[in-house]
């Protein structure tokens, strides 16, 4: 492959200024929101499905690896270039292609900002439920590639649950339309959900038809604090076992709480607060008092120090701000944050947090855990110093032990971040050789020359 | 392949009496709920995953085609034997393997009766939402194979939306465990949803981990009649465009209404009633009056003759009984019922019904339509006489025109029945050659010797 022959071909297919290889552009696109970087050979900005198809066809001819990119907000290196690769950024493909309020469906291009979808349909009393933390800037194509979740998944589910149909370009440069424009459909194998979560390794998604829901008209938010994590986990279990599914149920462990307090938030907590739960309920206004009462009752119990309802919008915003600040706050606490995203059944959450506590003590590591407790989905952050070889070795041991604990507890290695390049070495802990062999064969069907996002998702052979 | 060598091998793997080749057993298992039949060479009744694995291994060695069977209640010949095949009936695999009320998950064997799942968890205030019409006797394995829907899909979704993980045996005799035991998980390609709806052509599902929901504590049912189908469709649109998603929204066209009346039901309808809607809402008791009011307002409009709320359980049961009697009633109306199951966006439902009316007139056919209007999913029944060659030819023309109309209206050929053997000739109308070529390649990965449910789902090459 010679870049000097590919670039003119690509410039002929796209406008010249949308095939960039200047140092500044390459530097910007050399990383996503994961530690590490790699300078790509070029960055491409297609405007349309047809241009994506042209890119893949040319790339295939020249065996040029393509790294698809939404906003670059992923945590597992899914959009990180590999040596000799071209980044395909979807940021110029933001069109709303079709929208029907009555059918509650919308078709958007892959570069559409996720939050823009809900904003677009809000006037009709609709919304697009999945809202990963990066919602205000992440793009739907990235969400589809990683099957993004978010705090509201506990009630509303994840990206996969809202995808009706896709338009995509496979690694052979062929157009693949899959799925339907209707709320039901069972014709053929479910290629739609095969592409969702495939991290850009099977096809480049260019358009998606998504399902919308009626926007809940009211909500309420409660904050509860506990003397220890075990008692907070017991409360999570009680909340999830009662009748009203909360629209969010977030947990902060003592170290997350300390991080939040260090930033000046949550200063009003009672003495001895070592774990915090945030619970949101939503629905028709008439249902809220009942829901709040049921949640309050479930939150009360051993070790409960305080249960507070946020009564105005500002108080709710403060609570969420504290929760959302955790990701940047923990990032600032050490030179490197190893950000895991494990899930266990809600009934095993206490055991998971005990295991994490044990790992932190045994390996002398600073581990901060918080996340979507209603899904049993914890963000476990190892705060480390890459210069400290000994600590890094302990962190690697700790990670291995964390994953073992998660799998022993009937859990999974990732709830919403995905595998990308960071976690691929650990995939064989969870998936059997039979499953991996099928997945590799599927990869070869869609992308026989392995040009689509190489080095991601599937472990090295 | 010689049956006389296979049967002893299978009898050694299973108990002898669970490998049947007596004429009576073969006759019983020669058909499902689809016109036509074919005598299999044997019927197998495995008791466990390991026995299914033994069956597939032996079958593969001898190139014996295997036809998996739940209750045999499918409408597209999915469980119909092909010449020389063995039926694998899952009826002896009904165990509940695992259940956690707090995690709202249940793991069941494939032969578990679908309604038995909800019955099992009801005491904990939970239920398993998908409820195809055959709910009281169909088996979860069949539901998974076909991605079954049902009247409540409009609010609760279909089988696919409730599957967390699967255990299965591929065509190579290998065990494949896919998915998770948690409410979230994104590790690897989504093989779980690839198997759901694959109609037993990729693997035999032996166990499934399913998601449960809190049981709604109250519901209400309304019946509305209209002077014509177009006005009923307009009402469907209005219902689906307002804030409260109904838990069911069923439509009967004039011919379905006549069939119901001929059975002695719905005798109290006002003069001139030519289309009927049944709407159910559910949720917390406190929400019901608001929901009923909103639905009533949406149902009212041009051509609305009467809107009635069923105020007691008996009245509701009567309404549902009338709706559920439609399938057997139409079957009794002619020697052959060709039962289609098309879907269009709700906004195009009126056009679909006009197209059906046009086809019936043009081809002089008796077509009865009813079904899940809230999903735009109509059961279109051609009532014909197989002896009448001319009528059968007109029916084939009519079917072709129906499918063309559906696809022109942005629809899909099947919403919940699947493809099986009956519809496979029509699949290329909807799926592109690229999509079919990928699907065939996937089939070869899972089942290289094509022993799993041959002649189903994928069109002939």
Commentary on this structure:
Two copies of one chain form a homodimer. With 461 residues, chain A is of the alpha+beta class. The first copy, chain A, has four domains: 3-89, 2-Layer Sandwich (Uridine Diphospho-n-acetylenolpyruvylglucosamine Reductase, domain 2), CATH 3.30.43; 97-214, Uridine Diphospho-n-acetylenolpyruvylglucosamine Reductase, domain 3; 216-327, Alpha-Beta Plaits; 334-415 and 424-447, Alpha-Beta Plaits (2-Layer Sandwich), CATH 3.30.70.2740. Chain A is built from 15 helices and 18 strands. In chain A, strand 5 (96-100) and strand 6 form a beta hairpin. The radius of gyration of chain A is 23 Å and the shape is globular. The first copy, chain A, starts with a helix and ends in a 15-residue tail after the last helix. The interface between A and B is large, with 88 and 88 residues. Chains A, B: This is FAD-binding protein.
């Amino acid at each position: 492959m010679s870049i000097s022959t590919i670039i003119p071909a690509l410039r002929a297919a796209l406008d010249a200024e949308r095939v960039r290889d200047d140092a500044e552009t390459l530097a910007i696109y050399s990383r996503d929101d994961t530690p590490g970087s790699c300078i790509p050979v070029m960055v491409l900005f297609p405007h349309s499905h047809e241009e994506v198809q042209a890119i893949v066809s040319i790339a295939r001819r020249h065996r040029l690896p393509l790294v698809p990119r939404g906003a670059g907000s992923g945590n597992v290196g899914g959009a990180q270039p590999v040596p000799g690769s071209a980044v395909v950024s979807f940021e110029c493909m933001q069109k709303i292609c079709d929208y029907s309020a009555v059918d509650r469906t919308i078709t958007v291009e892959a570069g559409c900002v996720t939050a823009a979808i809900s904003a677009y349909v809000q006037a009709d009393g609709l919304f697009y439920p999945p809202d990963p933390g990066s919602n205000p800037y992440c793009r739907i194509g990235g969400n589809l590639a990683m099957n993004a979740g978010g705090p509201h998944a506990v009630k509303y589910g994840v990206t996969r649950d809202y995808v009706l149909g896709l338009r995509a370009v496979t690694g052979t440069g062929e157009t693949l339309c899959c799925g339907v424009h209707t709320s039901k459909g069972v014709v053929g194998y479910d290629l739609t959900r095969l592409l969702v979560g495939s991290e850009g390794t099977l096809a480049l998604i260019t358009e998606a038809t998504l399902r919308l829901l009626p926007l809940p008209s009211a909500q309420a938010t409660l904050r509860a604090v506990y003397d220890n994590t075990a008692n907070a986990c017991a409360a999570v279990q009680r909340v999830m076992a009662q009748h009203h599914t909360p629209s969010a149920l977030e947990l902060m462990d003592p170290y997350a709480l300390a991080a939040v307090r260090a930033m000046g938030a949550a200063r009003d907590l009672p003495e001895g607060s070592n774990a915090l739960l945030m619970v949101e309920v939503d629905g028709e206004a008439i249902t809220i008092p009942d829901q709040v009462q049921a949640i309050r009752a479930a939150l009360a119990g051993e070790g409960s120090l305080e249960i507070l309802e946020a009564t105005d919008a500002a108080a709710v915003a403060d609570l969420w701000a504290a929760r959302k600040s955790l990701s940047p706050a923990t990032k600032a606490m050490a030179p490197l944050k190893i950000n895991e995203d494990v899930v266990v059944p809600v009934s095993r959450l206490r055991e998971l947090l005990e295991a994490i506590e044990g790992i932190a003590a045994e390996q002398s590591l600073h581990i901060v855990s918080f996340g979507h407790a209603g899904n049993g989905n914890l963000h476990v952050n190892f705060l480390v110093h890459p210069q400290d070889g000994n600590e890094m070795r302990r962190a690697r041991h700790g990670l291995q032990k964390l994953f073992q604990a998660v799998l022993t507890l009937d859990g999974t290695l990732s709830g919403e971040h995905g595998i990308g390049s960071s976690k691929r070495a650990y995939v064989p802990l969870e998936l059997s050789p039979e499953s991996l062999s099928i997945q590799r064969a599927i990869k070869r069907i869609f992308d026989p020359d392995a040009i689509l996002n190489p080095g991601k998702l599937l472990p090295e052979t």
